Task: structure prediction
Amino acid sequence: MNTRTAGIAHIALFAALIAVLALPPALPLGPVPITAQTLGVMLAGAVLGPWRGGAAVLLFEVMVAAGLPLLTGGRGGIGAFFGPSGGYLLGWIAGAVVIGLIVHTGANRPTWLRVIVGLIGGGVLVVYLFGIPVQALVTGTTVTEAAVASLVFLPGDALKIAIATLVTLALWKAYPRAFGQL
Ligand code: BTN
Result:
């Protein structure tokens, strides 16, 4: 398989991974669910790098926008982007790009610290930066109230960061040359 074909296959694979992670039941503790799908977004950026990782999330979201029921609870359609979690969905694309930029900068295998910084920066800060203001706008609360409400996501997101860090470093160690081509 040449590099371009492998790249397209990786993008499709990670878009499918994000879709499959809709299967564990979401915790609907508020207007925005706690979901395992952010683990797929984190892995897309950290494993594939900024552009292919971002493309994987974009491909997943195009399928959602086209109406496929790939969000938790079997949701899909363009309406998902105009609901309380619409900002988070846009943040997933930017977040995967930022994760990839931080994790993949430099020639060598990243340290666990760089992976964690990338996942916190892209997978939490960037995602929340998009998500919280839109959540506030759609639910009619202040940004501060939406930010406080978003604290409920932090324990789950911390667990996903731990898993994504272990998986990324293990894959990088096992397939160093593959990562060089991503
Ligand atoms: C959707 O299913 O409509 C999108 C869900 C967005 C969930 C956000 S992403 C960051 C934070 N972490 C979670 O587990 N849930 C929220």
